[in-house]
């Protein structure tokens, strides 16, 4: 039985209507999660790699340079092109490729499974794709992961269609999509190459057409190699340096593996994660029985990618967030296994009542993932830092501060946004800001010390640390930290949270000086702060604005 031609009964009008309604509902739920509070999210951490590269490098330099920061050559080039065309870029512009790819995936992935598995499994698959925290978060973050997931998914399905039908149109689609996926992110290479393992195994069992199929496979592989060469060779020198610096002999701790399994399951709950993976394995076994080629193909993709990533061994596989990012291309197929398991427990030949019962299971799963996942937490719903590594790594509790070291101002802030300065853009060193936001509940804006103002970008949630820019912002209160490294030293990292970098002495000194200088300058220009203690100075910006409006020229 071919992968794309699983026999299913002709759908009734009622079944088609319910399918479209279910997929529409899944899309709307996924849309809501992906766009929730998106405009209020501070851009920081790894999201700034492409921003800095686009500001610093020319277009020819971008297209021929791989860097350790993984800024993604095509995305950086796109941002640079927009800048050269005179477009001023905001956070939303930098996140737009991920947002669009995430929304396309909600439509394309379930539709791609029609005919491969039954309709109820497709409906449940749409629900899982919409609710998966990993799929949601990486559809929001200004990184290359969601474009890579979508392109690699399309590539492997195009390969399957080509191998099944021998239609070269699909072969061209595969080559183009696979090359784009690897260009977007080099980590996609093992995944898009895995279909060749399936084809090689299929040739062993195939009795006829072996020579012709092997010839076609070689032609397709050569075409893929040429497509890779088109963007790899111009950047060969930097690519060789990247590979030499990135590859490490390393072990992957079992704790890291378990953390990744919980992230892929979409829950920090050990119990729900175990149930998720039991369902995934059960779904794979059921697929092996009912749709053997679907099961073997998806299993080959997953195993090939795992083996390939282990052989490449890029630096950071021991960190749960890094390992999970490299494994993201496999996640849509794991969700397919779970969806197939959830539609099977009731009756062998599910009639109308059986299909309704299976949909109730999907609804229960919806509630279970929402209830135990990260999205119901107040920190997610109202945070300005949903893209912080500590929020993306929802398998562990977030950092806290002892109550006695929290400045009193955060317990009695007036209504309106809070502008925090200075702000270190590395997620490892900015934990106090999301901790404070959990206390005061106001929207947070930041003033970065290492992201210089540039007329080509206009970030909604970041303000240049200049008095005029601060007053022109939407902030109601400004809080200047004169001892930010001291505050960060008192952050309590919970058990289970991976260790992070320690702040270097120069960075500590720069942050403290930046805070002291800004506070002294504002005191000279605006007068004394409304609140001051040993670590922060706070100004009511409405008072400052009102005073400047009434002062004589």
Descriptive terms for the model:
about 550 residues, mainly alpha, five-stranded mixed beta sheet, 26 helices, 5 strands, about 5% strand
The chain-level structural class is: mainly alpha
Give the radius of gyration.
26 Å
Distance between the termini: 84 Å
Helix content: 55-70%
Query: Strand percentage, roughly?
Result: under 5%
The best one-word shape is globular
Overall mean pLDDT stands at 89
**Largest sheet geometry:** 5 strands, mixed
**Poorly predicted sequence stretches spanning 5 or more consecutive residues:** 4-8, 346-350
Number of helices: 26
Q: Within the largest sheet, what's the order of strands?
A: 2-1-3-5-4
Strands, count: 5
Report on this structure.
The protein is mainly α and 553 residues long. It contains 26 helices and five strands. It has helices spanning 13-35, 48-56, 59-63, 73-84, 91-113, 119-131, 133-137, 145-165, 168-184, 189-193, 195-205, 210-232, 236-246, 254-265, 270-290, 292-312, 320-327, 331-342, 352-372, 378-382, 389-392, 431-440, 467-472, 484-489, 505-526, 541-550, and strands at residues 418-423, 444-448, 477-481, 531-532, 536-540. Strands 2-1-3-5-4 form a five-stranded mixed β-sheet. Mean pLDDT is 89; it is low at 4-8 and 346-350.
